[in-house]
What does this fold into?
Amino acid sequence: MGLTARLLRSCVETLVGFVLSPAFCLIILPIHVLLFSPFIALGLCSSDAAVGVPPALLAWRRLPYLIPMVLFVDLPITILFLATNLIEGLFLRNSLTLAVYSLCRGSSQLPYREPTLPDTEAGLHARDRSRPNTIDGARYRGHDSVWAALEGDGDNVRPGDVRLISLKWLMALAERGGVLPRRQDLPDEAFLSSAQLRRIEQGARRGFDLAGFVEAFERFSKEPSLSSFLGFCASFFGRKRNPDRLLPIISVSYCWLEAAHPDREGRQLQLLSRKLRGLYGGRGLLGACREYGFSDMGVFLDWSAGYQKDPALFAERRAYEASRSAAEKAAFDRMLDNTMDLWYAHASVTVVLLTQLPDELPAGFDRSRTYDTRGWTTFERCSAELGAKLSKLGFAKWKLVIDVASDDGGAQRRLPATPERMATLLAACRFTNGADSATVLALYKKTAKAVLGTVEKLYYYGLPLVRGDAWTSPALLAEALNHCESLRTLILTGNRLDDEGVAELAAGLEDAALPALESLYVGSNRFGARGVGALCGVFHRGVAPTLQMLNVGSMPIGDEGAVALAAALATGKPSHGLHLGWCDVGDEGAMALAAALPAAGQGCRVIASNNRIGLAGQVALVDALEAKHGPQLGNGMAVQQMNMLPWLYPLVRAWGRGWRRVVESGRFTICKTAHLYD
It folds into this structure.
């Protein structure tokens, strides 16, 4: 571009900015007050070491304190922030200033330096695994497989092999102090047919389409444009029936108290009913389901879903075995072999974990046989945690995995257990029938291969990844990711990962792992330059060869971390976009990124806003972006900085610090209502 043309364009952009910027600030002022100032306020009263959102702040963010907080905290912060940002943007960092600075110092002639990746430890060699079948994976996400399990599929399952009972009927039975009979002895009114369940599913209300919102956000992140931005804005108003794509089905995971009968005295049923009624502020699980539009829920309990032997004949072994006919035994085997995985691993089925035992237990009961020591319950819970289920629903007000021992109606989140880990777990578990061990392991291997091998998105917002933890360590995450051959999006934000944790995660990844990964979000964690080096070091081992977008925002990686990212960028990782806002990057890191950008992927963009980059680094990045993509308004927005006025950058850092604390707490749904951060 000629000198005159560039200066003329910069003059026009600056004049337009003087006209439009004040109006734009007035328009976004209420949005900033409602959505962004709370993060800044939280960050201002926090240290870098602070973790999560304190309960005291949550109390101040609810009525009657909400309005005073908005008027006397959020509004002044917004006015100060926008006013000083306006001054810096219009007078100190406008387009004309950057263009003149660039021409004076010749920043567009920056020499390209061949970057090198930091030395990293060798990873694990890839294991030979059979590739998962996408049809098998669809079994755990589409609704057709569940309906086929109830109605018959013409091959492996016949109509009536499995029957679900009504949650309303079950709760009423518990209220009467009754005992749940085996399937053969249940009255017809206890059951819900598949036709009834389909009608219940069709009665779901219309609500916010969270999946559509996420898809629009990801599209805008990958390809920022006017159309993708408008699509993202429109997604705020997206509504659809049954927006969370749920099925009106609950599966209960529980312990059998006796070999012949799971609950002869009805005490487990009483405990389950009491716990379910007390959930969600007293509305109960059934009340939350009704708010979603489900008038009832079908309940899978193995005792009532499949044909069972007569417990009254247990003492007479021959009569006991003969109490279930050959046809009933065949139906039970078909249920066990072809549907048990669905009831716990399916993405749309709610799983209730009865991890507590009743206070009164049968005489002679071994109290060491708890929920966590049983083979079948271990299978059921681990199946529910494989990754098909969302940890947080958009419209429904209940969790897809519910531990009745938890007061908040959820369950402690754990990472997926691989088949190898399940073999270790089952070796330490006990089965009522010892022959079940091999059956359970084979069934879990099939389920885990199908779910992990075909899952395309994994979200772990706010899940602490702690080294040495039995269920949530970085090493266990790496072990699970090695099975995720179809994974396209991985979100590890707010996981409190430090440098050592990232090194452990990187070391556990096999060579050529994550072959389909396109988007990796690791922002709002605790690692710095060393962690970035370990993360980037896996790329030369063939990990994530198709990576398009990498987000490391809101972390103190500094210039050294930016240099490591520049080295990866020069090798084509990521190929499409690198986001490192709020990362405390200065001119040195910006220069390294600008030097690496010419060798990056053809469509690659770098977004490095809200750092401590000065004019030299900002000009270098703008020139590199314009050389790659041509003159665009988005180039300046991608590297917008706010640090020339002495009080502005502390506000920017507080913003990033507050956001990280909110994400670490797992409260990533932001709305300024009576439930802010909920």
About this structure: Residues 32 and 78 are 6 Å apart (CA to CA). Confidence is low (pLDDT under 50) at residues 107-114, 669-678. The first strand starts at residue 164 and ends at 166. Residues 456-664 form a domain with the Leucine-rich repeat, LRR (right-handed beta-alpha superhelix) fold (CATH 3.80.10.10).
